[in-house]
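Here's what a typical entry looks like (RING-type E3 ubiquitin transferase):
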Amino acid sequence: MTDDRTSSQAGPSSRPDGPDAYRPNSAFSFPAAFQPSIIRSFQKDSYYLSLLQAQLSDVTREVFGSRFLQLNSGKITLLASIAYYVFTTAEGAQTLGEEYVGARMVGARGKYVSKRKRIAFILTQILAPFLLSRIYAVLRRRINATHASRSQTLQRARMRWRAIHGSRYEKEVEDKEPQPSRLDKLVAFTARMLPSIEDLSKADGWLAYASAFHLMLFYLGGKYYKVAQRLVGVKYISIHPSPPGQEPPSYEVLGVLLGIQLGVKLALSLNRHLHKRAIQKKAARGDDGDSADQADDEAFVEVDGRKWTHSSGSAKPVGVHDQSGLGESESPKDYTSLAPPGAQVPLAYLSSTGNILPSSTSSRPTNDEISAAQLRTAPIESMSQSMLRCTLCMDERTPEKGTSAVTECGHMFDWSCIMSWLREKRECPLCRQEVSANRVIPIYNL
C-alpha cells in the first residue's frame, strides 16, 4: 500500500509530459555562421578544388597528351569538381573549407540535411551550369539555323514572284509579294534577341548582373552565398562558440555600395541600348541629312583626312588649252573651290597633242605629310615589332638570319630559347601542347 501510494504521488511529477520533462530538439541549437566565415569557407574550397583540377589535368596530359587535354579541359574541370563534392558533401562530411572555419551545412529549419538534398545541392552547384550552357548553345545554334533557312526560303519565293509578276505589276510588287508569316517573325525576333554565351558571361553581361545582385543580397544580411544554396534551401551554422559579447561583423556597407554600382551600370547599359536603337531608326528612315551626306561623298573623296574633288563634267587637260576646237569655250563648273586650301590636286589628262605639263605630275610629299604618314604607321610598326618578339627572352627575333623556329602548334621563338626550354620541359610554353625537339622547324623571313 505504501509503495502504491508513493508511486501514485511521484507519478505525475515523473511523467514525460510534465513541465520539467526533457524534450529532445530535432534542430541544431548552434548559431548561424557569420558572413566572413561563409566567404572564407568557399574561398578555401575554391583553393583546394583548383589544386585537384591541376593535378587531374597533369595526369590527363601524361596519359592522353596535351591535345586531348585542350579539347576536354572543361569536362576535366567538371569531373574534378564533382569528385570533390561527392566525397565530402554527398557523404555527409564537411568540405575542407567548412572544416577550416568550423561550419556545418543544415536545412532551412536547422535540421540535418538529407542525402537527397545534398545531392540536389551538388547538381545545382556544379552540373546545372555546365548542362544549361551546353543546352543554351545548342538551342541558339538551331534557332539561328532555322532563321537562316526560313529567310532563304522567303527570299527565293519573293524572287520567283518578281520574276513572274514583276513586269506586269511593277508598281505593286512590294505590296503583293510574299510576306513573312508570324512564325517567321517570331523566329527572327528570337534569333536576334538571344545573345551568345560569351556575351552573357562577359563583365557587362546579364549573368554578371545577376551574380552581383545575388551577392548584394548576401551582403545586406542574407545567409545564401551561392545561388545553389538559395534554390535548395541550405545554410550554414557555426560549431565553434563565439566569444561572449562579440558582435558579428556586418557587410551591409558593401551591399549598399554594390547596389549603387549595379544601378549605375544598368543605367549606362540602358542608355547605350537606347542610343543604339535611335541610331538604327535614324539610319532606317534615311532622312535628308543622310542623303545630303551621300551626295557630298559622291562629290568628294576623303584620303588621309583630306578631301579631293574633280569636275563631274568632261575632263580637261591641266595646263593645256583646248586645241581640238571641238570643246566648249567656257570651262566646266569648278568644284575644287569647295575644298580646303591646299587640298586641290590637278588631274592630268592627255590632250589631243599628247602633251602633259611637268606641273601636272605628282609632286614630292612635304614634311608634314611625311610626319602624318609616320604617325599613321606607328601602330602597325609596333604591332610588327611585337610579333617579331620572342616570348621567352623578350628580345626581337632576327628571322632573316635563320635564328627563328616554329613549333607544330604554330608558335614562333628564338631557336636557342625554344631548344633550352625543351630540354627542361617537352611542351610549348604558350599552349602547353607536347613538343619534341626533333619536330621544331627553322624559319626564314617570317
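Residues 124 and 231 are 8 Å apart (CA to CA).

More examples are in the samples folder.
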